[in-house]
Amino acid sequence: MNSFRFRFLAAALAVLLGTVIAKSQTTDAQSSAAPAPPAHHAMHRHGFHHAGYGMGYFPRSLNLTDAQHEQLRGILQKERPTLKPLMQQLHQTQQQIHQFEEGSYDETKVRALASQEAQTRIELTVQQARIHNEMFQVLTPEQQTQMKEIEARRAARMQQRANHASENQAPAANQAPAAPEQ
Questions:
Q1: How many separate domains does the chain show?
Q2: 150 part of a folded domain
Q3: Structural domain range at position 78
Q4: 3-state SS class at 61
Q5: Where does residue 24 rank: exposed (0-12), middle (13-18), buried (19+ CB within 10 A)?
Q6: Which of 88, 90, 107, 178 has its CA 20 to 30 Å from the CA of residue 126?
Q7: Which of 5, 15, 9, 67 is CA-nearest to residue 36?
Q8: In Å, what is the CA distance from 4 to each residue of 65, 137, 150, 160?
Q9: DSSP one-letter string for 10-44
Q10: Contact 69, 58 (CB under 8 A)
Q11: Closest by Cα among 34, 38, 120 to 83
């Protein structure tokens, strides 16, 4: 579950960064010919996509100004060269591990790849925390307080879902296998 969640978050981050870069390039090209597009991605009303909830999730309820949107976009664009190689390295390592899952198994090589993957995840987590902090500093003190409340509610919901999921799995694990009918 944890690996799936990380892969989903990594993919979302990659999509967000690509979208932000492409959108800013398109905006730059169109800025002299047309009015500026809305400050947030059209598909995501809260703006800045969800990017793994640890990176660029700044909900619409914060009422970000256009200047704040541009600052956040600038941070993401500036940090893309730092994150992209880490994401690529993580993806390559996961592909190599997958080859051992379906091919001949070599525990020593899998352990080495798992260690490499862990180091990449550590570096990615450190970079994401740094970037999130930089983005958080763009908010006003009131927006920061509101963001902390939103994050606390989200963490409580996630914990509640995790507890609910473990409760649903526990009875199945405690049940004895059914005896074959004769």
A1: 1
A2: no
A3: 2-30+37-140
A4: helix
A5: middle
A6: 107
A7: 67
A8: 34, 30, 24, 19
A9: HHHHHHHHHHHHHHHHHHHHHTTTSPPPPSS-TT-
A10: no
A11: 120
For residue 168, is it within any domain? no
Residues 6 or more apart from 147 whose CB is under 8 A from it?
A: 58, 62, 136, 139
Q: Do the beta carbons of residue 59 and residue 46 sit within 8 Å?
A: yes
> What Rg value do the Cα atoms of the chain yield, rounded?
21
pTM, full prediction: 0.60
